[in-house]
Amino acid sequence: MMVRIGSFLSVFVFVAIVFFDVGLGFCAPGPKFKDGGNKHNLSFSNTGVNYKATSASDPRGNQICIFCHTPHNAKPQTVLWNRNDTTQAFGHYSSNTLAIHTDPTARTSSDYKTEPNGSSRLCLSCHDGVTALGAVLNGDAIEVNNNVNTVMSGAHVFDRTKITNSHHPVSFVYNATVRDRLNVLEGAGTYKLPANAKVRLDKEKRMQCITCHDPHQSQFNDPSTPFWVIGGTNATDAHDTVCLDCHTFTSPNL
Length: 254
Known about the structure:
mainly alpha, 2 strands
């Protein structure tokens, strides 16, 4: 009887995990980078994505990492980058309500750059809407969607207008000095340093795109969400959980 009860409990726990975690997407991560459905996998064999390599006969189009990384002759970046720097000028978010832009002390301590830098600049070598997705550094361009000149279009393009007017600032230092100054300006406890290890600043303590977005795997399994580094019970919860690691208010959807 004890064996049967134990077996029943094991089956019950297994079914509960599958039902709540996978079936409903509760805290379930999205497809891994190498799997089908991951939008950053541009290989020919991928499915359910807007952009991918055209030809199965091109060995490079069957590779996954090649569109961003190369083991040899890479750009002088720490991630063996296989793309040239974008040629576009983006500016930075410059709202008159943004303290790191308007307050001299906050601006100096945050070293708020006039252009995105670091890993955010790498993201923009695809997301600028100008650079061909198959334009790898090491070798000839790879044909994507039947053309070597295919570029990203639509909502996922970040041009100067979008970056300067309607999206979270990037490439600024966010340390205790900056946090404390922001809290003086906007109210005690308004800002905090990220506590979740998945919400990461870069080695210079700068907030970058990858602070909130994991380019290899979204931690919430919903194709409409932008590769959040933390999951949630639904799309709104995943969004807010990331925001609330630095902010103490409930953020609107961007």
